[in-house]
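User: Once you have settled down, look closely at the record that follows, taking as long as you need, and be ready to discuss the fold:
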Amino acid sequence: MTSSSANRSPLTARVASQGALLFSGFAAAQAMSFARNAILGHALAKGDFGLAAALTLLLQMVEQLTDVGVDRLIVQAPDGDEPRFVATQHTALVLRGVLTAALLYLAANFLSHNLDASGAAWAFAAIAAVPLIKGFQHLDVRRAQRRLDNRPYLVAEIVPQAMALLLTLPVVAWVPNYGAVVLLSIGQAVAMVAMTHIMSERCYQLAWDAPIFKRIATFGWPIWLSALPLVAVYQGDRMIVGHVLGLEALASYSAAFLLTMVPGLIAAKVGHAVMLPV
């Protein structure tokens, strides 16, 4: 019994230290995100900020509705360290990014018209670049999590948030409307993908392996199915507010919504990053 406790102690200590590291890192990232939104809320007209909130909401919905847990499968799969396995996950991410971008681009006119913002159709089309860019991220940062090493993952989270915050004032000065959010979102996506490649240990590769794709589908369909009620619960009210009450009401509602969601988001991210490898 004493030997068993001794064997568990290093793991317990490592989990605790990684939890503390993750909590501080995600808290810093959320603080920078909040500061960026505060600057945007102050600098933009209320209608523009509401449209910016609608664009952000759209990205969040698309990310949730197309998530099949590729990154988590790498952490949990017994062969998640194998190069061909990771390369196949890269291919799945690229396909997800291309498909999502195409759907967003084609739906741009419908989405802008639905929000009585027909002049902003270009913004809804341009925001499609974000999932396309994110489709090329390097999953080595997730592979490191198998060893309970969350440092690469945190760097890929924090650095893009810091860069977006630093660029907010210059971008708003250059584009003093909702277009600033489009540019910042694209810039943040580029920075995130770049950091995942910089922090990687292996070269980026793509592969096609039918049995692995079948495993992705088997692993991912419950995650995808659970996303439907989650979108309804967490995003549905904002969609209703934006459609019924207009973009200005959506701006105020989204600001309050984000404040209440921060603790839950941090706790969920820390829990996933620490417990999945264990």
About this structure: The radius of gyration is 20 Å. Residues 1-7 have pLDDT under 50 and may be disordered. The chain is about 80% helix and 0% strand.
